[in-house]
Write a structure and sequence with these properties.
60% helix, DNA-binding, globular, Endonuclease I-creI
Length: 333
DNA sequence: TATTCCTCGTGGTGATTCAC
DNA sequence: GTGAATCACCACGAGGAATA
């Protein structure tokens, strides 16, 4: 790595990512979900989309629910009356998409043109009135399953929980409900560039109480992550970080800091604190020396992070090729 | 088909408090 | 005095979904 520039590494990373997106992954013969292994037969893989869809549905949903809602609805959308029934049932429990679901249920039996239906649904989506719901812990648990995130802070080791949503209204419901129920406030932050909002819980006591409440009220897809986070005390921060990363899959994989990266971040954080103290005591020279050291460490940190991402990409691509992945000719520009 | 939007997961920074 | 822990705020990239 010595002598390699950040710009050069970034170009290599971009090239590897380009290669990775042009790979046709090896055939999948089985997959595991919910502790069960599902075999995928060649016909389902090769041509029968419905067959593969049914398999996935069986794996990821409740058997009864999937029969009622899933396999055929996506295929027959627009003419199956069970779609209308499903939309009506969902509308009874939905806060955010009630108007759209009611419209969908009505339109399936109306004579309106497909184009007209499409415009009406789009208008309902824009105009959806966010009437205040009967906010409850089961509602928050369900919302968190879909939009929540549990993280261990890289340089502090602190547990953090966040909810993200483009519409700030729902986050305010949750913040208000929680303040009323538990007497503590949450920080709500709006992302400048995208306009999306995030609700943060960072006080360690509040994080623990919140996770326990979510678990007690039906948290499902993030259950394992929440239990792992709550095991802190018996397990090290690094192990919890690693476990949470594994549970969240490959998303943002190449952004994650390695254990060495976390140590660098912690060192920088400690030096920054010292510099700040020297500055506050008027020891300007010492503060300036530390600032120079911090800048050098930050450059090294950035370069090392890029190198780690590059090595991980290399290794992932090699493994895929070993397993039978090939370049997709149709994606070669 | 290209572009924009939206969500998820992640990292950085500064201030304050606490323990040694 | 110092390092560790905590809290609060801010921001961005990836990639799938929605839209033009």
């Amino acid at each position: 790595m010595h002598g390699t520039s950040l710009r050069y590494l970034q170009r290599r990373i971009d090239a590897l990512k380009g290669l990775q997106t042009r790979l046709l992954w090896p055939p999948m013969w089985q997959f595991r979900a919910g502790g069960e292994t599902f075999k995928v037969s060649p016909p389902a893989l090769n041509c029968c989309r419905t067959g593969l869809l049914s398999l996935l549905v069986r794996a990821f949903t409740h058997p009864k629910a999937c029969c009622a809602i899933w396999p055929d609805s996506s295929m027959k959308l627009g003419k199956g009356e069970h779609v209308g029934k499903a939309a009506m049932q969902l509308a009874e429990r939905s806060f955010l998409k009630r108007q759209q679901l009611l419209l969908a249920a009505e339109q399936l039996s109306s004579t309106c043109t497909p184009e007209g239906q499409k415009h009406a649904l789009a208008a309902a989506r824009v105009q959806e009135g966010y009437s205040a719901p009967r906010c409850s812990w089961p509602f928050i648990a369900g919302f968190f399953d879909a939009e929540g995130c549990i993280q261990v802070h890289p340089s502090t080791g602190a547990l953090r929980v966040s909810f993200s949503q483009n519409t700030v209204t729902v986050l305010r419901w949750i913040a208000d409900f929680r303040q009323h129920d538990m007497g503590s406030t949450l920080s709500l932050w709006r992302h400048g560039a995208t306009g999306a909002s995030q609700l943060w819980v960072e006080c360690q006591h509040d994080v623990h109480v919140l996770l326990r409440r979510l678990l007690d009220n039906g948290l499902l897809t993030k259950r394992s992550s929440a239990l792992l986070a709550l095991s802190r005390g018996d397990t090290s921060c690094l192990d919890i970080r690693h476990g949470l990363s594994r549970l969240s899959g490959n998303q943002s994989k190449y952004l994650r800091s390695t254990p060495a990266g976390i140590k660098r971040a912690q060192r920088i954080s400690a030096l920054r604190q010292s510099a700040s103290r020297y500055l506050s005591r008027g020891q300007l020279e010492k503060s300036r020396e530390l600032c120079l050291e911090i800048e050098a460490l930050k450059r090294e940190h950035e370069l090392s992070n890029a190198f780690d991402a590059y090595r991980t990409l290399q290794s992932d691509i090699r493994e895929l090729l070993t397993q039978g992945a090939v370049l997709d000719d149709a994606k070669i520009l």
